[in-house]
Amino acid sequence: MKAEEVCEPEDACTIDPSSIKGTDEELGGILIVVLKGTYLTWDHADSAVEFGKAVMAVGRRTSICLRGDAVLMAKAGQDPDGHIPLCEKLLEVIDFGGRVLVSMESLESRGLDV
C-alpha cells in the first residue's frame, strides 16, 4: 500500500458543512452523537461541537446527543488546562439555537445528576 492511499482517521471524518444541500423539511435536522468526552485527541469531543456550530452557521437545525463518557462534557467546573471547557462550548451550541441532549442513563451510571 502506498502512503498516499492511507487515510488518517481525522481525514476520514472531514466534511464541508456547506456541502449539505436542501432544506430542513427535505432533509431533516442534523443529529451528532458524541460518545467520548476527551480533549486533545483526533476524535475529541470539541470537534463534534465545532462541527455542530458550523452546520448551524449554514442554516441547518442541529442537535448534539451526549452518551457514555460524553456526558462529562456537560459537567460544570471543568479546568482543561488552557482550553475552553467543553461545557462552555455546549452553551454556545444552545446560544446559536441548537439542542443538547444528555442520556440520563449515562449520567446516572457516572454518579451525576441534573
Question: How would you portray this structure in words?
Answer:
The protein has 114 residues and is an alpha/beta fold. It has one domain (3-109): DsrEFH-like (Hypothetical Protein Ychn, Chain: A). The protein is 32% helix and 12% strand. The protein has five helices and three strands. The chain has a three-stranded parallel sheet. Helix 3 (45-57) links the parallel strand 1 and strand 2 (62-66). Helix 3 runs parallel beside helix 4 (86-95). The longest helix has 13 residues, at 45-57. The chain is globular, with a radius of gyration of 16 Å. The N and C termini lie far apart (50 Å).
Described by the principal axes of the CA atoms, the overall outline is: globular
> What is the H/E string?
HHEHEHEH
How much beta, percentage-wise? 5-15%
The separation of the N and C termini measures: 50 Å
- Counting helices, strands and paired strands, the structural category is alpha/beta
The biggest beta sheet is recorded as:
3 strands, parallel
Report low-confidence residues grouped into runs of 5 or more: 1-7
Q: Helix fraction?
A: 25-40%
Number of domains: 1
Radius of gyration: 16 Å
Task: Assign the CATH architecture.
Answer: 3-Layer(aba) Sandwich
The CATH topology is given as Hypothetical Protein Ychn, Chain: A
Number of strands: 3
Q: Please give the order of strands in the largest beta sheet.
A: 1-2-3
- The helix count comes to 5
Write the layout of secondary structure elements.
Elements: H1 9-12, H2 24-27, E1 30-34, H3 45-57, E2 62-66, H4 86-95, E3 99-102, H5 104-109
Parallel strand pairs: 1-2, 2-3
Helix pairs in contact: 3-4
